[in-house]
Structures are given as structure tokens and as C-alpha cells.
Specification:
Radius of gyration: 18 Å
Strand content: 35-45%
Number of helices: 1
Distance between the termini: 59 Å
Oligomer: single chain
Low-confidence stretches: none
Mean pLDDT: 92
Largest sheet: 6 strands, mixed
Number of strands: 10
Length: 118
């Protein structure tokens, strides 16, 4: 009986792990000329879509006192900005190429993604 319970529990654990990490659909937020990103335990929205060749303002508002989130780094765009608590920081981007570009906190623990479309 113990072996059956352990086998069922293990199988359910594998299925739930697979679903949580691999089947999770990311929500892509498409904004206009300005997108507000809330920084609280990560980035919301986490994935944004912006047009190539058009200037877009990313407005970061940090509400989390976690020191890891004090900075945002957009490595592909060579941008690194300090995010003071409860103050909006605007980053203007005019991407020249299409693709997916990651951004993160200063320590690389929290991540987001910018999708540049045609």
C-alpha cells in the first residue's frame, strides 16, 4: 500500500511540476506610446510588446523595498537605471531591430521580456 501511495504522489508531483514550469503561458502586454510597469516582487506586466522604430516610454514604478529591485538593467539597450521607492522612472526606447530582449533587476534575480515587433 505504501508503494502505491508513493508512486501516485510522485507521479502527481511530476505532472504538477511540468505544468507549472513548462505549460505556463506568458501574457504579453501590448501598449501604446507609454507602458506602466509595476515593480513589486517582480515586474508587472512581465512581458511587453513594442513596435520597432517607434519611441516607447517604459514607466517603472517600484513599490517593493527589496534591495534587489532597486535597479533595472536592459542590457541589449545598454540601459541601467536606479528605481527609487514609490517614484516613477521613465526609460525611452526606440528599438532598431525586431526580436526578444530580456531585462532584469540589478542582481539578475527578477526578469522581464521586451518583444520588438515589425
Amino acid at each position: 500500500m505504501d508503494k502505491i501511495i508513493i508512486t501516485i504522489s510522485g507521479t502527481l508531483g511530476i505532472i504538477l511540476t511540468y505544468w507549472f514550469f513548462l505549460m505556463k503561458k506568458e501574457k504579453v502586454f501590448s501598449g501604446g506610446e507609454s507602458i506602466d510597469i509595476i515593480v513589486e516582487g517582480g515586474y508587472t506586466p512581465e512581458t511587453i510588446s513594442i513596435p520597432r522604430g517607434k519611441t516607447t516610454k517604459l514607466n517603472f514604478l517600484r513599490k517593493d523595498s527589496n534591495s534587489c529591485l532597486e535597479e533595472v538593467v536592459l542590457g541589449d539597450f545598454k540601459v541601467r537605471k536606479t528605481l527609487p521607492l514609490n517614484q516613477k522612472v521613465t526609460i525611452e526606447l526606440t528599438p532598431k531591430v525586431s526580436g526578444e530582449f530580456k531585462y532584469s533587476c540589478g542582481m539578475g534575480m527578477y526578469h522581464g521580456k521586451i518583444i520588438v515587433t515589425e
